[in-house]
Amino acid sequence: MNDLIVQSINSIVFSMLLFIMAAGLSLIFGHMNFINLAHGSFYVLGGYIGYTMISKIGSYWMALIIVPILVGLVGAIIEFLFLRRLYGKHRHLEQVLFTIGLALITADIIRSNWGTYVVTMQTPLLLDGSISILDSQFPLYRLAVIGIGLTIAVALWILMQRTRLGIILRAGVFNRNLVSESGINIQAIFTGIFGLGSALAALAGVIGAPLHSLYPGLQFEILVLTLAVVIVGGLGSLQGAFFGSLLIGIADTFGKALLPEISLFLIFALMAIVLLVKPRGLFGAQNS
Amino acid sequence: MISNKPKTDFTHPIIQSYSRRKILKLAGAGALAYTSSLAAACSNQSSSSTRDVPIKIGVLLPYSGIYATLGDSISAGLEMYLDQLGYRAGGRNVQIVAEDTEMKPDIAQQKARKLIEQDKVDLVAGIVSTGVLYGLREYFHNNKKLLICANAGGNKISRDMKSPYIWRSSFSNWQPNWPLGLWAYNNVGNKVFMSAPDYGAGHNMVDAFAHSFQSAGGTILGKQFTPFPSMGDPAPFITEIRKSNPSMVFCFYSGSAAVAFVKAYDEFGLSKDIPLVCSGFAVEEDVLPAQGSAALGAISGLHWALLLDNETNRKFIDAYKDRTNVDANVFAVQGYDTGRIISHILDEVQGDTSATSRMLESLQDVSFSSPRGPFKLDPKSQNPTQHIYVREVKEIGGKLHNVVIEDLGEFTDPGNNSLG
Question: What is the pTM of this model?
Answer without folding.
Answer: 0.87
